[in-house]
Amino acid sequence: MPELPEVDAVVRRLREAASSSTIHSVTIERPGNIAPQNPSTFRALHGAKLLNVRRRAKYIFIEFSNQLHVQVHLRMTGNLYVLPDYRFRPHNTRIWFRLKDNRVLIYEDSRALGRMHLVTREDIAATEAALGPEPLDAAFTPALLQTILHSVKSPIKPVIMDQRRIAGIGNIYASEALWHSRIDPRLSARDIPKRKITALHTAIQKVLGNAVVSAYAEYAQPGTTPESESFGVAVYGRKDEPCLKCKKSILRIVQGGRSTFFCPNCQRP
To answer: Is 58 a catalytic residue?
Structure first.
């Protein structure tokens, strides 16, 4: 599933490949990906120039010259990229934007769970207002993280994955950051001491920062993280394997329907 670093890589590559490109036509192969909108809605983009692509949390916003915007959430298997010829589209293409130069901007999604909608600036503002701070922004300080955590009694891992509280931390990087800061994922967020919060803040920014660099260099499609990236995982997906620090076995538990991996020796309550 694409997480913040992978979505960031998609955005940066798309910005480099498609900025200033003019849309010839838009074809919706699977209307479910744009529901409840009608495929005819996207005709408004015909002839428009793509001005910018940016990320907020795991959302992608594409700005066009006619003051329209496309909002994308990749979900489990979505991907956006440009191919040199519109005639060579992969079979999992759900939506495609033919460009004036005959290249094509592909939205590929094997499980067809992602969503793409034509939206206004007001729609985007409403989406962003519901999201927490970006973990890689300068405004995301240890003091802010402490304020966020000390207002919640739920276990720490689901809290830092709550997009309303902190935007963009997914399952892989939550487990990794907690291991690096030696915090038990089951511990109540409001019980995390200040020194551990500072360590967690450092770990979040370091883990995500390294993953962003790795994803931009190597990310190709969902499912390639973490196996094919140079970003090395310490605990995620390593159940029963030895901890890189203490050599004790990594455990797997389920929190909020998601797998959590941790070292019970290094990450003590």
So the answer is: yes
